[in-house]
Amino acid sequence: MAKSKSAYSTPTKQGKIDTHIIVVWVDNESGVLARVVGLFSGRGYNIESLAVAEIDSKKNLSRITIVTTGTPRVIEQIKLQLKKLVPVHKVADFKKEDKKIIFKEMALLKIVANSVKIKRAINACKKFNGVILDNTKKSVVIQITALRRDIDKITKILKPLGLVSVSRTGAVAMTRGAEVFK
Amino acid sequence: MANLMTGAEIVFKALEDQDVTHIFGYPGGAVLPIYDELKNHKSIKHILVRHEQGAGHAAEGYARSSGKPGVVLVTSGPGATNVVTALTDAYMDSVPLVCISGQVPTHLIGTDAFQECDTTGITRPCTKHNWLVKNINDLPRIMHEAFEVATTGRPGPVLVDIPKDIQFAKTKYFKPKKEKKLNGKLSNKFNQKEIDQLIDLMLKAKKPVFYTGGGVINSGPKASELLRELVSLTGFPITSTLQGLGAFPGDSNQFLGMLGMHGTYEANNVMHDCDLLINIGARFDDRITGKIDEFSPKSKKVHIDIDPSSINKIIKVNLSIVGDVKEVINLTIKTLKKKKLNLEKSNKEKISKWWEQIQKWRTKKSLNFINSDKVIKPQFAVQRLYELTKNKDTYITTEVGQHQMWAAQHYKFNKPNRWMTSGGLGTMGYGLPAAVGVQVAHPEKLVVDIAGEASVLMTIQEMSTAVQYNLPIKIFILNNQYMGMVRQWQELLHEKNYSESYSAALPDFVKLAEAYGCVGIRANTPNELDEKIEEMINTDKPVIFDCLVDPHENCFPMIPSGKPHNQMLLGPQDQEEKKITGKGKTLV
Ligand SMILES: Cc1ncc(C[n+]2csc(CCOP(=O)(O)OP(=O)(O)O)c2C)c(N)n1
Ligand SMILES: [Mg+2]
């Protein structure tokens, strides 16, 4: 074996990487998002998407939903590190495959094309419960609320039909049934 | 109309209510209102440092030796950026600091005003929490919360950034409230069942070991007392991390010495071969574990820590107990006694073979070195310093490098809070200002910084501080004319290419001492060492002691990088023997 020249140990084998949705309830104060995001970048964790907004103006609470990937140990660390932040109240974690959880992302899609193509575009979106928000002779803006992969799919379909602009949110999540995460 | 106070008054009011008696700081434009208020608060003494990094490390030394939070006061911009190293150091080693920084007035924030910087942005990753006070009404609450966050749970540094206009603005002050919230972060989460499981593991173990760390010290002197009781009750061997030294008596027969990269042969072999590893307040740092895959492969592992995120971070454990070390040990001892297991007898038999094995490892005498009567060996210098100061209640700080490891190996600590060293960050320049802080907290005690000639030059300006406040700190420099630790790595791993590790153009430390108005002493040979050390101890002024040591000495034992604990590199004596006998190849 070649002699290591490093003062540190060499990296060892990694575990299996899964996609998780982490939900964080935080005090809605200045800098809180920077703390959460800084924790991810500082410790080398991954952020695939991020959604954040105030959910309770009386209690001054915001809810941050982060889609991330990592080995089970990394995911565990992410949760424990988040819980240490002073403005964090609670942290929930769901596997992407979890059947008890609803995930949704929203996309706004602008199509600029002739009326034939616009029609075909609107039709293509029907499968994904597209909602028309704006309609002119030359263009249409469609809203879609779906899973990430479905939105990926529809954007691919719409490309040749005149899709010129896409705006997407990060995923938000909610448990099914009457249960509430404590 | 209730009594309105200015922001500057509120800062001091809060410090008074938190029983702060000393602050370490440096003035500037953005903190002038606070400095103006200083004169009205006689119970608080300000120590003027010579560089803000010095203020931070002094506050760390103060905190670690006294158990109280250290308080730092700096101006905006360069004042704040200069303190970042110390904040990071305190963050890594879990030292409670409250740093107050001035900021440009709120209406100028974001305009690149003179001496403006994004202080809360810069310090966010190196503090437990920080606050930019935008509204005077928030100031009393934030000041109290700052102390709360710094000192509870796993301690650490916090920073409060106060714009200048807020320091002038007025509001009502209120005292700290008793109830603690912090979003439910402060609970001791362990229960009796976990303690029972721990005891069960302890009863079954044939090769147990306690591996203890700075968490025991941070839990307060009571935790160290309880640890001693637990260790004697169980008869188990105990090893300690760099930061844990002093929690258990260094001269006890049950103590195996420090473990890790420069730990003893017996401590590291015990870690490797044990069947039960009980980690109390340590964090499986990479200088401790060596190669993760081969770390203590045969043991069941227990981790007792106040910080849940330390558990399973590096090493997966079989049992985790989240709580304050003091409380956990206390309940463990109580339970052990209640069960009347007659542990002392039954256990001792069960682990007697283990102790036999440990005795065999001990015969290696891995801290031995080949002494000389011509040149001072650095290890010998530390040993003599220890022998000549052990009957005093001595406080030791260090810089970073070989001298730090020799200090850890050869100075034996018997009490907690007597050993201040930069472990997590490994900050050269820590020891001198830390000694200043320790001496402020303990004016009558002997405080020695075991230093390297390279490190000490990073914060040497704090000698002025020591002189100004009559702080008789002793800077004991093991002068090997090299960045010795760097030279050692280059010798062992980079084919002796000593790239930039020679300490060229060193000052004359004796003259330097005199220039600062303190006392310089030099020791050239082993036979004058004792006499010179005595002279240093008996000098009631700050001393710079230039101890000229062998420039080529290396620090052993050593676990080379990427190697497990049972493959240590031992000292030259052992390497010689191996050559002769051809045995022990596994140890190279
Ligand atoms: C601020 C800082 N810069 C660089 C280093 C890397 N470093 C670690 S030990 C060392 C040499 C220290 O030399 P000296 O103080 O003379 O101690 P010795 O090892 O010779 O005892 C250096 C450069 C460090 N730890 N801290
Ligand atoms: Mg040196």
Low-confidence segments of chain B, given as residue ranges, are 580-588
Q: What is the average of the pLDDT values of chain A?
A: 93
Task: Provide the structure class of chain B.
Answer: alpha/beta
What level of helicity do the residues of chain A show? 25-40%
> Strands across the major sheet of chain B, in which order?
3-2-4-5-7-6
Structural class of chain A: alpha+beta
Q: How would you spell out the order of helices and strands of chain A?
A: EHEEHEEHEEHEE
Quaternary state, please? heterodimer
Biggest sheet of chain B, in brief?
A: 6 strands, parallel
Distance between the termini of chain A: 51 Å
Classify the beta-strand content of chain B into a percent band.
15-25%
Radius of gyration of chain A: 21 Å
Ends distance of chain B: 78 Å
How much helicity do the residues of chain B have?
25-40%
Low-confidence stretches of chain A: none
Largest interface: A-B, 28 and 32 residues
Description of the structure:
The complex is a heterodimer of chains A (182) and B (588). By secondary structure, chain A is of the alpha+beta class. Chain A has 4 helices and 9 strands, in the order βαββαββαββαββ. In chain A, the strands form 2 sheets. In chain A, strands 5, 6, 7, 8 and 9 form a 5-stranded antiparallel β-sheet that branches. Chain B has 588 residues and is of the alpha/beta class. Chain B is built from 25 helices and 20 strands. In chain B, helix 2 links the parallel strand 2 and strand 3 (45-48). Chain B starts with a strand and ends in a 7-residue tail after the last helix. At the A-B interface, helix 1 and helix 2 of A face loops of B. The complex binds thiamine diphosphate and magnesium ion.
Describe the SSE topology.
The complex is a heterodimer of chains A (182) and B (588).
Chain A lengths: L17 E10 L4 H11 L6 E8 L4 E10 L1 H13 L3 E8 L5 E12 L2 H12 L4 E5 L3 E8 L1 H11 L4 E6 L3 E4 L7
Chain B lengths: L3 E3 H11 L4 E4 L6 H6 L7 E4 L3 H15 L3 E5 L3 H5 L1 H9 L4 E7 L15 H5 L5 E4 L6 H13 L5 E7 H5 L1 E3 L19 H13 L3 E5 L1 H5 L2 H14 L3 E3 L14 E4 L6 H9 L2 E5 L5 H4 L10 E6 L13 E4 L2 H14 L4 H8 L1 H11 L15 H12 L5 E4 L3 H9 L8 E2 L10 H11 L5 E6 H4 L6 H6 L5 E6 L4 H10 L15 H8 L2 E5 L2 H12 L5 E6 L23 H10 L7
Parallel strand pairs in B: 2-3, 2-4, 4-5, 5-7, 6-7, 9-10, 9-12, 10-11, 12-13, 13-14, 15-16, 15-17, 17-18, 18-20, 19-20
Antiparallel strand pairs in B: 1-8
Helix pairs in contact in B: 1-7, 3-5, 3-19, 9-14, 11-14, 12-16, 17-18, 17-24
The complex binds thiamine diphosphate and magnesium ion.
